[in-house]
Design brief:
The chain is mostly helical. It is elongated, with a radius of gyration of 37 Å. 3% of the residues are buried.
């Protein structure tokens, strides 16, 4: 009841200020002030003020807000730990299993397919152009790019 009275008084005062502002020929500002002053009375008429007043003075509601805060804190803490730890438990187990498997040689450009992969035995073991050429002789593609850009 007190909240409704206060909201009505605020709206009446705002409409009075809007009227004075309109009398001073500032119609745009007066319209804006009138719009803001109608908000408190609109909240009273829709029942939002009663709902907020009912929530604000119940201990069970504050307990609910406290539990929501604790849940949010737990979620954010676990997210931060998960990001720092390198992912979920499934991801860590998959990474550990992959590390125990066959590793790729450090100088290899692509992983080998292994003996069980289809088509791995049908490939001949011929040397590629990069392996047969000397290390300093295969710069033709780089030279072409540099010439294209005028360098």
């Amino acid at each position: 009841m007190l909240a409704e009275t206060i909201c009505s008084a605020v709206s009446a005062a705002g409409l009075g200020i809007a009227a004075v502002t309109a009398w001073r020929k500032r119609f745009l500002a007066a319209t804006r002030i009138a719009a803001y002053s109608l908000v408190p009375i609109a909240l009273v008429l829709t029942g939002i003020v009663d709902w907020v007043a009912g929530i604000a003075f119940k201990p069970s509601v504050w307990l609910g807000f406290g539990l929501l805060a604790v849940a949010w804190l737990l979620f954010t803490t676990t997210r931060a730990i998960e990001r720092r730890g390198g992912g979920t438990r499934k991801e860590r187990r998959a990474a550990a299993r992959a590390a125990q498997g066959e590793a790729v040689a450090p100088a290899a450009s692509a992983p080998s397919l292994g003996a069980g992969a289809p088509g791995s035995q049908a490939r001949p073991k011929a040397k590629s152009r990069q392996q047969s050429a000397a290390p300093g002789e295969d710069f033709s593609d780089i030279e072409a790019i540099l010439k294209k850009h005028g360098i």
